[in-house]
Amino acid sequence: xxxxxxxxxxxxxxxxxxxxxxxxxxxxxxxxxxxxxxxxxxxxxxxxxxxxxxxxxxxxxxxxxxxxxxxxxxxxxxxxxxxxxxxxxxxxxxxxxxxxxxxxxxxxxxxxxxxxxxxxxx
Length: 122
Fold this sequence. Notes:
Layout: E1 6-10, E2 16-18, E3 31-35, E4 41-45, H1 46-58, H2 66-76, E5 80-82, E6 90-92, H3 95-100, E7 106-112, E8 115-119
Antiparallel strand pairs: 1-7, 2-6, 3-4, 3-5, 4-8, 7-8
């Protein structure tokens, strides 16, 4: 795993976020962006999303378990998947996700275990 646990970036005019070169291998499987628990976004490597998050979202006490349903809605509402731009290592962040997280151009990214939290600077 890369030793980079924090980075700051400025989105370009097309809402693209450039992933640092030393982290691009982590996202070789693709990228999943979702709403976070608060006013921030979660950025997952697609392999982590498929292997761990999907399993966790489906683990519940049954089809009528409201807590599991609420978490599913939180994470799936507005979820987007993308591939890194091979040349620049960029991903486009949809406007509805930027609005949810109250992000404009400047973004702070912090590793939170196996995923990243994208938020506005303080």
